[in-house]
Amino acid sequence: VSSVELTREFLDRIKQEDGKYNSFITVTEEQALAEARAADEQRAAGNATIWTGVPFAHKDIFCTNGVRTTCGSKMLENFIPPYDATVTDNFRKAGAVSLGKTNMDEFAMGSSNESSHFGAVTNPWGLSKGEKRVPGGSSGGSAAAVAARLVPAATATDTGGSIRQPAALCGVTGLKPTYGRVSRYGMIAFASSLDQGGTMARTAEDNALMLNVMAGFDPKDSTSLDREVPDYTATLNEPLKGLRIGLPKEYFSDQLSPAMEEQIRSAVKEYEKLGATVKEVSLPNARLAIAAYYVIAPAEASANLSRFDGVRYGYRCEDPKDLMDLYTRTRAEGFGTEVKRRILVGTYALSAGYFDAYYLKAQKVRRLIQQDFINAFKDVDVLMSPTSPSPAFIQGEKTNDPVTMYLEDIFTIAVNLAGVPAMSVPAGFIDGLPVGLQIIGDYFSEARLLNAAHQFQ
Ligand code: GLN
């Protein structure tokens, strides 16, 4: 098929189906068809990469030149960036066809995609049972769109689980690379020391193809790392014989539901059949991860979000009386509840008198958590655990209780604090709802994670 035909096919599917899911904020039909036509010409001229003419979508956190980029917020409802994120640029150069921008929690804060200014996203698996369940968050739009086959692949970001948890809840495969592996330039900032762009698709192989395009050093991002990018598809078929798997005992506590434990243990058994060895390991400080994250992430967010002041870009309140009125009303009207909660928590934690007690303490805990992973990877190659404590929950169930919502991140967040890479891979069902196996690796072990995921699929 030609790229134009393929692109039309997916655009039609989005038109017919996305009313149910709300997984897109913006569909760029005209641009997509123009890109597809250009891709067909490139292909005819013999200039094709593997991505030339392939449709995909961007999480609406990546700046797209000339295309509205909202970050799920009223604050950026009408923001049209005059430049591309490096990730966007990389896909453009590879000839891929962007169908549009996927829905997300406002400023990527959330685990259910319910904090989006553009409405909640509905999980396709829940809907097939007649129930309105969350897709997970914050990359819930990307996950739901891939799960519903509205798009073969989508970009996503993971500051505290936002690729892995929605991938798990929607039954797709997602990868959060090592911090610094993918450029953050043009990716709207939430918590800069944690934010990392990554991949979401049906299979590990498709994730590898995406990472081949996304990974690499970028002089425009001072935290991007200058290391060679391997071909992530080259090692997908390596045998797993001798792979040393660690099961962190803290993640298999009596708090874990028996149904979830059974799914994960049976996935681990499959790995043993493939020749892997399994042992128990310990991440003694993992229990502190949620507490540390929910100080550090809001602290960084409070600083990053100070740029939305109604002066330079984004939402501006009507008829401000004076400068203070402009600032306060713009921010009161432009930000949603969860974003305001984070700004307040973060500002408090950074304020004189509380900095040492909260922020500095959280940073020390973060270092201990990082050391736990470094120690674990002296003995094993990968760690395995559930991705989320339970399958997709019903919409509205956790919205009035932020702490229960934050507990969704119990298995994913330590990884972000340490900066190591991790994946979520579909690993069965509980009551007809998908469950994810989390595979965590040492720094820059993306190829190994993709290999392990591919062999399992
Ligand atoms: N649940 C996390 C949070 O709300 C998800 C953040 C993320 O990865 N973008 O902060």
TrEMBL record:
Its EC number is 6.3.5.7. It catalyses: L-glutamyl-tRNA(Gln) + L-glutamine + ATP + H2O = L-glutaminyl-tRNA(Gln) + L-glutamate + ADP + phosphate + H(+). Gene3D superfamilies: Amidase signature (AS) domain. It is an enzyme of class 6 (ligase). GO terms for molecular function: ATP binding; glutaminyl-tRNA synthase (glutamine-hydrolyzing) activity; transferase activity. Residues 5-450 form the Amidase domain. The keyword Protein transport does not apply. GO terms for biological process: translation. The active site is at K59, S138, S162. GO terms for cellular component: glutamyl-tRNA(Gln) amidotransferase complex. Keywords: ATP-binding, Ligase, Nucleotide-binding, Protein biosynthesis, Transferase. Belongs to the amidase family. GatA subfamily. Heterotrimer of A, B and C subunits. PANTHER family: GLUTAMYL-TRNA(GLN) AMIDOTRANSFERASE SUBUNIT A, TRANSAMIDASE. HAMAP family: GatA. Allows the formation of correctly charged Gln-tRNA(Gln) through the transamidation of misacylated Glu-tRNA(Gln) in organisms which lack glutaminyl-tRNA synthetase. The reaction takes place in the presence of glutamine and ATP through an activated gamma-phospho-Glu-tRNA(Gln). This is Glutamyl-tRNA(Gln) amidotransferase subunit A. The gene is gatA.
